[in-house]
Amino acid sequence: MDDLWAALGLVLVIEGAFYALFPQGMIDMMRRLPEISPRTLRVTGLIAITIGWLVVRLVRS
């Protein structure tokens, strides 16, 4: 369970860094988000899940 909390904390650190370092870029990205098709968002999310799962498997083996 400690690993889960550590992973969630790391996600917040990385995401927070993007907002802190590139605030205008994040605002621009949020404005363009409605223009992206739901299918593209879904596929991108599934790819991110797959890559994340593979990284965890490689680190844990």
From TrEMBL:
Record field: transmembrane: 6-22, 43-59
What keywords are annotated for this sequence in UniProt?
A: Membrane, Transmembrane, Transmembrane helix
Q: Which Pfam families does the record match to this protein?
A: DUF2065
Keyword Membrane attributed: yes
Query: Is Transmembrane helix one of the keywords UniProt gives this record?
Result: yes
Protein name per Swiss-Prot or TrEMBL: DUF2065 domain-containing protein
Source species: Mariprofundus aestuarium
